[in-house]
Amino acid sequence: MNSRQRVLTVFAHEEPDRVPIWCGCSPEFLEKAKRQLGIADDEALRQRFGDDFRRVSASYVGPKSQLHGDATMRTIFGVERHGIGYGQPTSIPLAEAETVRDVHDYAWPDPNWMDVGGIRSVLAAYNGEYAILGGDWSPFWHDAILPRHGSEIAEAPVRRTDSVQRRNRLASCPYRWDCGNSS
Questions:
Q1: pTM of the full predicted structure?
Q2: Do 82 and 72 contact (CB within 8 A), yes or no?
Q3: What is the residue range of 97's domain?
Q4: Dihedral of CA 76/77/80/81: which sign?
Q5: Is 72 contained in some domain?
Q6: CB of 145 closer than 8 Å to CB of 168
Q7: What distance, in Å, lies between the first and last C-alpha atoms of the chain?
Q8: Which residues have CB under 8 Å from 170's CB, separation 6+?
Q9: Is residue 5 part of a domain?
Q10: What is the pLDDT along the chain (183 residues), one digit of tens a residue?
């Protein structure tokens, strides 16, 4: 059973040969693990860990932006972060949004800022062996919604009916759809 078959078996609610493994980690962890284990590249490390998943994503080709204060990175949604790995948010652009109009008027990222041209060749190299994780890792949920509404939304996301919250969720859908359907 290869990795892809293993994951699909679990999704079918059947028992695979072993539990699928995903090594979801920061680039800093990957670098440290490779150094400590004397492994040259990410793929060899993932094989050593028995990782059943591989990630494919578009490359950001949009405008460069200035970081403020002690920020070490900025997401495509304009949230600046600081700290080890992906860090913690230091700015939350929609923190003051009170109306649907506030959310609507936000400068949402342009799907054309993402270049999907290399994804097919990356997928081809995996030759159907692995389960594929595609796209950004929950950028909108973690960077715009959760910080805006705090643990209340984390504890009961389904029950939330606030119109600003609904608009926050919906606003990311066209971005994700356009990125996923670019040629």
A1: 0.68
A2: yes
A3: 60-111+137-181
A4: negative
A5: yes
A6: yes
A7: 33
A8: none
A9: no
A10: 999 999 999 999 999 999 999 998 888 889 999 999 999 999 999 999 999 999 898 888 999 989 989 888 888 888 888 887 777 778 778 777 788 888 889 888 888 998 999 999 999 999 999 999 887 655 555 565 555 444 443 443 434 345 545 544 444 444 444 444 444
Torsions phi, psi for 95 (to 5 deg): -60, -30
* pLDDT for 158: 39
Q: Does some domain include residue 125? A: no
- The torsion angles phi and psi of 144, rounded to 5 degrees, stand at -120, -40
Q: How many domains are contained in the chain?
A: 1
Is the sign of the CA dihedral 5, 7, 128, 180 positive or negative?
A: positive
Cα angle 62, 64, 70; round to 5: 135
8 A C-beta contact, residue 92 and residue 147 = yes
Contact 22, 53 (CB under 8 A): yes
Residue 107: inside a domain = yes
